[in-house]
Amino acid sequence: MTRTPDTGFPDAAKVEAVLFVSGRPVSLKELAGATDLAEERVAAALAALAERYAGEGSALVVRRVGGGFQLATDPDLAPVVERYRGEARPSPLSGAALEVLSCVLYLGPVTRAQISRVRGVNSDAVVRGMIERGLLVESGRDGEGPGAPSLLDLSEDFFIASGTDSRASFPSLDSLVSEEELSRVRERVLAARGESPGEPVEGP
User: Fold this and answer.
1) Who is most buried in 73, 113, 130, 199, counting CB within 10 A?
2) Which residue has the higher pLDDT, 193 or 119?
3) pTM of the model as a whole
């Protein structure tokens, strides 16, 4: 049998090498393909890495974000990293920006017009800002809308920034607002979608 350079390295080392050089989250399938390991062994290696970092008091952590896994510095060390880089924290999101992101999170993919209708105010400028910050992306076209407008959805960077893996990581809409508020949201959503009243608004 031909000997390959990675022969003899433990599974965790192979997985760690891929995560180290990747600038984005890597899915379980991608890790399995790169390391030539079964997904079950990759999952075990990820768990071993996380346990090792925690036990050593390492600056590194394994994060599950954006549908994959990523090596990152411990959030508690952010002040140290920022001082080294000389970077300021990103400006906080405005209330309008949070409303737009919430619309896309719970109702998306949606068009700009649908976001504006749900919020009750023109949201084009806020949407443009969220696209520029990389938190929203165009994910297709609304074939039923006039002119087939672009559909907006959350980006991979959104899930990375929020430290979450998917919409399922967020609480359901009905757990956040009262029944009266939810009814008003439902009416606006159904009107924006051109649907009939009486259908529930689903959470992520």
Assistant:
1) 130
2) 119
3) 0.56
